[in-house]
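LOG
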Amino acid sequence: MNIRIRKEMPADHRIVEELTREAFWGNLDHPTCDGEHLLVHKLRTLPSFVAELDLVAEVDGKIAGHVIYSRAKVLTPDEILPVKLLTDQLPEQVKQTFARHEIRFVAQLQRYSGAELLEWEGMDESLLMKINGILSRLGQPCKLLPSSYILQLTELGVRNPVCSLIRSKAGIFLYRVEAEGKKLILKVFENQENAREIDNYLLLSELDIPTLPLLGYTQNAILLPDAEAGGEYRLGKESDLNNTKVAGAIARWYTMLHKKGRAYLSGSESPMYDESDVLTADNMRLIAEKTGTAENMLWHTITGNYDRIRSRIDALPRTLTYNDFYWTNLLVSKTGESAFMFDYNLLGKGIAYGDIRNVTGSLSPEAAAAFIQEYGDDIDEEQKKADAFIAPLVTLANACRYETFPTWAATSLEELKNGELLKHLREWLQLEGVK
């Protein structure tokens, strides 16, 4: 059998229309068709007709299948719905061949923009990315995704930008931008889950908590000033972890975050990111399986008391928590009197002590003491005991999402194996008699 896929020619029109009529004849259990062949005839004359994707399949020199596309919209009382119109299903023996040959016709999509393609029914960003992969292998320019930095800068009104990629990781792209004498930073989020950082910037600004000024934002990106371009603040340095003055400034920012965060959450049912949400019964079983510790007493204790443990976790007082302290996320005033964190992708709600432990564990002993002194004595002992159990377990839950167990979770795994985690759980729940 010789199967060939090619563009439809004018000489094929009558054959294709008869094929269409036969394909739809009796389709609704009555011996007729409803004019699909006439629809094909008329579609070829419309501006919405996609000529590059008007294809026929020949089997041994005879036309056996036809596919036709038209850009169209369905009007409803409330909205306009974009659709894709497809007629003439290919015979079964042709389908696999068409699939093998479709790469040849992807290049014909070049005259349509990424935005246009996404208006077609059945086309989403994942499929557009697949098409881009094919175009790249063919040596042709790729389509711009809606999250493209070029489209974001256009939407933000940034004119004549010169851009350079600083880094990209897990669907988050950071660009340095120069435009009309200004030095800017553009952060683009490929995934909507990561785009929560946009709302976090807006929330901190609303609460008057020091952040980088948000110069603009879209559904997929934020525009910020470039802190390295001069001004009142500088980027953090590793030596700041040993600086007691800087540690005090960091403590003042966290104190404000936690104080205003408690007030905000007390009147809000905000569905914010919460690290402890990963501590589900299913994830406990996953950790036990992936770490080879199913016989560890910790899991027997958790299984027997899971509802009580979960209730105690949920009852802990919540505030806004940063969850991601490191000197690379730090901005310090040039006088050293003030400092604040940036990069709010992991900002969420949690217990304040989690942040305190996160910061002091990264600082030198002297700087950690300065942090605690400035933060004050508002440190809840119950939170401290709870965090000793919760934090390593959260780390293990996140680590077990990876195919290869990451080295950054090694300490938490050791705490599980040597009984420290079980000890912390018993100490925390001792008030309720759980052993």
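LOG (cont.) second protein
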Amino acid sequence: MTRQKEDIENRRSEVARQYLQGTYQCDIAVAVGVSVPTIERDLRVIRDRWIKSAIRDFDQIRAEQLAKLDLIESQLWEQWQRSCETIIKTRKEKREATKFPGTNNTIEKIEQSGDPRYMMGILNIIERRCKLMGLDAPTKVAPTDPSGTKPYDGLTDNDAAQRIAALLDQARTRRDRADPIE
């Protein structure tokens, strides 16, 4: 790959990242140092790639949402790693009214086990991705009556016969009102 093509691909990667974060096209153009029409062309190429990676045309939105979830998940993983790091705090205290005036330096190391909120965010993203991709098992839905309080038992034979008779009456009435064919 030539240097120019590599630069374009790097720019498109940054354009896609900022677009998924909701940045306006004009702001993206300023950030990457190109014109707004160039950003529009880049976004067309990016969207085409997203569509090609999806199975059907209507999957463009799904592909964009999956790309957003990927970006958010990677940011959550970074924050999780940061929340697991050891924190080092230094404190300086002046000693004036002692035999040896000067400064006491205290170093405190705080071991962290990670902020569980980041893991919950990651789990939510994984669950959302599974739903978007249809990986979850189908949900069983039990039919109910129109009020939603009682199970739907279907029509009795008598109810079905009455509904069929009513529909036939309506059809006959429409037929009788229609002009006869000459």
